[in-house]
């Protein structure tokens, strides 16, 4: 009988692989599982900063990486490693690396690749902090960044007709759920010599698999759907072992955006229920989007699976469902604030992918850092609201929104 006191069964790199394919639901509970000699049922929490060695020779070999051994929790930690291995198995990636937050993952994903004189291409619609990293911070390092304003094949072909080091896209985008053709951009990126990095936060690992469409790296804010219960911060990057080991880890080991073991443990337990949560939230979001379409006081509802969405067919090719988030356009900031203030069930908060439904006004919160011209170019108006749909009964959420509109 196989002893289950180390990663076993579901890790393709394990020396004791399972004899059969397992369903993703099973992997979400058991993938990458490591047990100590105590044979605990739940994953062990290693709240330690460092590790000891049997000898000076073992320490030397560990630092030389000729012997596998945890060195320091800034580099690796058993609990964090379990989270990384399980998430990689769910995503279908060769390797994963966890970070302390989604933005540390985003920054590291590009920063580990570029030097002064390199060129980066990015989609025009994205989360504001990502936009700041790409258009303000990286250019100070001498990195050229081109933002593709028009999300068309012609525009992407023009932008990637020249060599590039990395391409960063967010699909669906935050908050208006704009969709980028991953397969098309992946092909163009590779022709330009670039790695394609996809911010998959809005879709989650449940609803979209960018690697299957040719992406090289997938980025997550694990704070969102992976935890999805408003408890901890975390981030993750997934891709080839070459990217993780040769580019990302040397960068993060020295710059230090490490994930805490406690947060990794919480995220591990959250992976067990992620699929159930995301499917219910996505179903409710679509039901709410349909119910609010054409409602008096709402100019437009943004949801990728609505017939009114200009990229509905592309979204359905790339995504299993339309996501857990939708956006609403009201006529003004005053009307948007009135609606938010009248809600009795839905909370005002700038997080998303949470088990509780949350609403925010992007222009004054999540995207406040952007100048008005950039916000308007992204389609984020003064009356735009972003609604992250949680696990409540959708009828209660619809009634809350409709009642607030009527008042």
Explain the overall architecture.
The protein is globular. It folds into 2 domains: 24-271, Type I PLP-dependent aspartate aminotransferase-like (Major domain) (Aspartate Aminotransferase, domain 2); 275-406, Alpha-Beta Complex (Aspartate Aminotransferase, domain 1). Helix 14 (333-342) packs across helix 16 (394-406). It contains 16 helices and 12 strands. It is an alpha/beta fold and 407 residues long. The protein has helices at residues 24-30, 56-63, 78-91, 102-111, 128-140, 153-159, 182-191, 204-207, 223-227, 241-255, 261-271, 274-292, 312-318, 333-342, 372-377, 394-406; strands spanning 95-99, 119-123, 144-148, 166-170, 195-199, 217-221, 235-239, 300-302, 325-329, 347-348, 358-360, 384-388.
């Amino acid at each position: 009988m196989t002893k289950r006191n180390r990663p076993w069964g579901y890790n393709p790199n394990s020396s004791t692989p399972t004899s059969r394919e397992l369903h993703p639901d099973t992997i979400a509970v058991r993938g990458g599982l490591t047990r100590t000699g105590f044979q605990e049922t739940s994953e062990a929490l290693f709240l330690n900063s460092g590790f000891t060695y049997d000898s000076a020779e073992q320490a030397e070999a560990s630092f030389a990486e000729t012997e596998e051994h945890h060195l320091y929790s800034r580099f690796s930690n058993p609990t964090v490693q379990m989270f990384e291995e399980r998430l990689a198995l769910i995503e279908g990636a060769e390797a994963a690396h966890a970070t302390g937050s989604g933005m540390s993952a985003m920054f590291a994903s590009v920063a580990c690749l570029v030097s002064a004189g390199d060129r980066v291409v990015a989609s025009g619609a994205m989360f504001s902090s990502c936009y700041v990293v790409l258009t303000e911070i990286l250019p100070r390092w001498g990195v050229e960044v081109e933002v593709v304003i028009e999300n068309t094949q012609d525009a992407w072909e023009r932008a990637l007709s020249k060599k590039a080091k990395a391409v960063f896209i967010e699909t669906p985008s935050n908050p208006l759920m704009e969709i980028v053709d991953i397969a098309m951009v992946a092909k163009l990126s590779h022709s330009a010599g670039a790695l394609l990095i996809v911010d998959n936060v809005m879709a989650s690992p449940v609803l979209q698999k960018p690697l299957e469409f040719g992406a090289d790296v997938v980025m997550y804010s694990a704070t969102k759907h992976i935890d999805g219960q408003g408890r901890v911060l975390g981030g993750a990057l997934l891709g080839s072992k070459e990217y993780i080991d040769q580019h990302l880890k040397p960068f993060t080991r020295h710059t230090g955006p490490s994930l805490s073991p406690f947060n990794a443990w919480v995220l591990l337990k959250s992976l067990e229920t992620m699929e159930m949560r995301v499917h219910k939230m996505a179903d409710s979001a679509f039901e709410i989007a349909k119910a609010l379409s054409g409602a008096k006081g709402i100019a437009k509802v943004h949801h990728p699976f609505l017939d009114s969405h200009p990229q509905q067919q592309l979204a359905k090719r790339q995504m299993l469902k339309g996501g857990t988030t939708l956006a609403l356009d009201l006529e003004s900031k005053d009307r948007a604030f009135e609606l938010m203030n009248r809600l009795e069930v839905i909370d005002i908060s700038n997080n998303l992918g949470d088990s509780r439904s949350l609403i925010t006004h992007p222009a004054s919160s999540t995207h406040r850092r952007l100048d008005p011209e950039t916000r308007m170019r992204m389609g984020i108006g003064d009356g735009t609201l972003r609604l992250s749909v949680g696990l409540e009964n959708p009828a209660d959420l619809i009634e809350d929104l409709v009642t607030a509109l009527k008042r």
